[in-house]
Amino acid sequence: xxxxxxxxxLKPSExxxxxxCDAVGQPVKTGYEARSPVxxxxxxxxxxxxxxxxxxxxFSFPQTPLVDKDFWGYLSPALRxxxxxxxxxxxxxxxxxxxxxxxxxxxxxxxRAIAVIQHxxxxxxxxxxxxxxxxxxxxxxxxxxxRRFYDAAGLAMFAIFLFAPQPVKFEFFIxxxxxxxxxxALSFFLLVRFLLAWRTGGGSRRMLAFGMSAxxxxxxxxxxKPSYWLSAIFTTIPIWCFFFSRREKLLHRFLVILIPGTxxxxxxxxxxxxxxRSDEVxxxxxxxxxxxxxxxxxxxxxxxxxxxxDPAVPYSQKTLRSTLALLxxxxxxxxxxxxxxxxxxxxxxxxxxxxxxxFTKMADGELQKSEPRIEFYRYYFQRAxxxxxxxxxxxxxxxxxxxxxxxxxxxxxxSFELKKNYVISLEQFEVPDYHAELVAWxxxxxxxxxxxxxxxxxxxxxxxxxxAFILDRLGNCYMPGLIAWLATLPWLCWRADRRARFGLCAxxxxxxxxxxxxxxxxxxxxxxxxxxxxxxxQFATTLITETLTGIFLFEVFATAIPLSFSRAKxxxxxx
Length: 575
Prior knowledge:
The chain has 25 helices and five strands. By secondary structure, the chain is mainly α. Strand 1 and strand 2 form a beta hairpin.
């Protein structure tokens, strides 16, 4: 790890420390710049000290993990496997995270091991962010930012991530969102190293190793959280560019895609498909969830089809009228019994999905069989896109605006009371179906007793005032930074020397922003970003991308402004 926190080796031609001059004759350092022994010692001592303090802080809390209303789909497969049953898909949840929970519990037989390992992965995420930060400096051909300032900014970003309360609270929960930041940071680091290796020596074994690893771990993310499918596709675009590059050997191009693609299929996709066959909810839940999220828009489309019958609709008027009546009743119940929730959707979709009898009554109606009902939900979601694209795009735009605004929600939450979450955990344990399986495994009894004990003395995770101030300012600056980065791209692409100087760093920032945009776009299309954890899970990628954007913009302006002054002087000079 210490070696990773240095800078990647470049070709001899790119490691020169000979100063060059910018447009106004000021010397600018180029390429790789070695740390002096004193500076290197100070840098490594600082990040080790920050890491140790952050580790002490994390592990000073009780390590009893937390659960929420969705926990049973992730924990029950592990409990069943531990009590003599097979490890099977449950409640429509992906099998990868339950498999990891099963592995941890089978080895340690203690629920606290889950929180300990997830805290360790949180610390590892911080180290990966710092390693990525150190690697990105080599992407600049010239540096107006001093080495000391750059390292100090990286250490500040490292400390902000490790001491921010959002990731720490997240690491207590038994849910896959918790470990997504680690794999996002890992794949981002690998992609950065791939791009650097490709620039300095295409076809090397190191470059191929980084590329193959980046592809594999990019697709681990959607196996944990399906909303990351678009992120996995967008962030691996550099790999696809390499695949279609005729300058590279055909064998190398195929190896970068074939080996990780085969591993993804054998280790992630195939086990998921096999496991989901026995879980009926995995087939019914996604279309029901999408239908409930878009219930208000779909209701308008069904009403239009009832008012003006369309021969292309494969459902009778009787079926449409009965569905419309049930949907009107369900939406009214959601608005009346759960006001103020999911206002961007005009009704609480979770209430309609979990608490209202709409879907139960649908099963008792004309569409009694499961497959026709699922097809009905899918058909009207697709029909709403075809017939009401404006309304659907408006919904997507509203959802994206919840993240891309002057208060980025990834930085929300500066204080969390664990006591409240332990109370919620106890409430979930009292559900009869859950309780019966929990008491069947003895370590689960100790776990529930630990939660009951902490119900009255849970600690509070909070950020100091200065850190809360920094997090608020970062939330305010994320969108302006993104706009400023986009605004520099035409200037950057206009000339070859600018592309050579800033192009690679701009591409790295594009990958960083793609993690957020792909995830947010997937959620905006199929769900809603009103759920806070959908934004907080992006804290790590948001922080490093925004901080790197600040350095990038400084380098660009430090290059462009002296150039403009130089031209002004030449224009005003009269011999």
